[in-house]
Automatic annotation (TrEMBL):
Name of the protein in question: HlyD family secretion protein
InterPro entries, alphabetized: HH_YbhG-like, UPF0194_transport
The YbhG-like alpha-helical hairpin domain, residue ranges: 67-189
Organism this protein belongs to: Dyella marensis
GO cellular component, one term: cell envelope
Length: 320
């Protein structure tokens, strides 16, 4: 048998063996990064943008600034309110001044003198009522004036007692609570002011800058979107028959579409709940259509791979 025939037979045998061999377990997915959205802490105008889309940034690097004018004014008002409450609390703790107590004693003495005069006038009118020398209306007015004077004496004495006894503990507690609330409000405004200068919470790449200079984003709108991490990870979907073949910590081979190099990865996550159709809605062979989300970390050699590229993951056979 000549060589061409032998070569043809060998190729045919190789193809037959390849067709009969069982394909290794695989899972499909895409390359992804951890996405970090940095929301707008306040509805303020974008004052400065210090990065560009696609730029690699380090943790703590300035990214974007919002106009702080309005927040600075709110902070100044909150700090002034806190100072006012602190002065009020100090006044409560120190108690009344001696001059206020002396004035209250003088007011009491004046009220007592007026009361004595009103009572004496009433007593002088009473004998005149028998012989109708004084009208009943005049006597009634004198009686009312004497009673009013006595009431003013009681009020002046109570005011003096309140000053002499000093501030109540409940009033001091209320003053302390008001001061704490004002200080907390000032602290919150200070934190908000610090958030107007956005910095990168982690190292990563700037994926998106939805707003431009001069724009005013609503509260909570993403101002900067970062792709965090030194390298992407593979987000794959495991079919139900192969779910038991893979465990967290297993090493797998990752094939990236358009790249000949095979990357080594380690499984970091496998969701316990299936994606898509819930298991209780499937019976028999339909259960094989369940898919479980898994994530595979890649090494530094995959740092330059683009996000969103399809990947195929080969993983080992079932373990005993």
């Amino acid at each position: 048998m000549n060589r061409p025939i032998l070569r043809s037979v060998a190729c045919a045998l190789a193809l037959a063996l390849a067709a009969c061999s069982k394909a290794p377990p695989q899972a499909l997915g895409t390359l992804e990064y951890d996405r970090i959205g940095m929301p707008a802490p306040a509805a303020e105008r974008v004052l400065a943008i210090k990065v560009r889309e696609g730029e690699q940034v380090a943790a703590g690097q300035p990214l974007l600034e919002l106009d702080p004018t309005h927040t600075q004014a709110d902070l100044a008002a909150a700090e002034a309110q806190a100072q006012q409450q602190q002065a009020n609390l100090l006044e409560l703790r120190v108690g009344p001044r001696q001059e206020d107590i002396a004035k209250a004693r003088a007011d009491l003495a004046a009220a007592e003198a007026q009361a004595r005069d009103a009572r004496a006038y009433y007593q002088r009118l009473l004998p005149l009522q028998k012989d109708n020398y004084a009208a009943a209306a005049d006597i009634d007015r004198a009686r009312a004036a004497a009673g009013n004077a006595n009431g003013q004496v009681a009020a002046a004495k109570a005011a003096l007692d309140a000053l002499v006894h000093g501030t109540r503990p409940e009033q001091v507690a209320q003053g302390e609570a008001a001061l704490a609330a004002a200080q907390a409000q000032a602290a919150a405004q200070k934190v908000l002011l610090g958030k107007l200068a956005l910095v990168a919470p982690r190292a990563g790449r700037v994926d998106s800058l939805p707003y431009k200079l001069g724009d005013q984003a609503p509260v909570g709108a993403p101002l900067v979107v970062l792709l965090a991490g030194d390298a992407p990870y593979a987000r794959i979907y495991l079919q139900e028959p192969q779910r038991a073949r893979l465990r967290v910590g297993d090493t797998v081979q990752v094939h990236v579409d358009g790249h000949d190099k095979v990357y080594q990865g380690k499984v970091r996550l496998i969701r316990s709940e299936p994606e898509f159709t819930p298991y209780y809605a499937l019976i028999g062979e339909d259960a094989a259509r369940l898919s479980y989300l898994a994530e595979v970390t890649l090494g530094p050699d995959a740092a330059e791979l683009p996000v969103g590229v399809p990947v195929r993951v080969d993983y080992p056979e079932a373990k005993p």
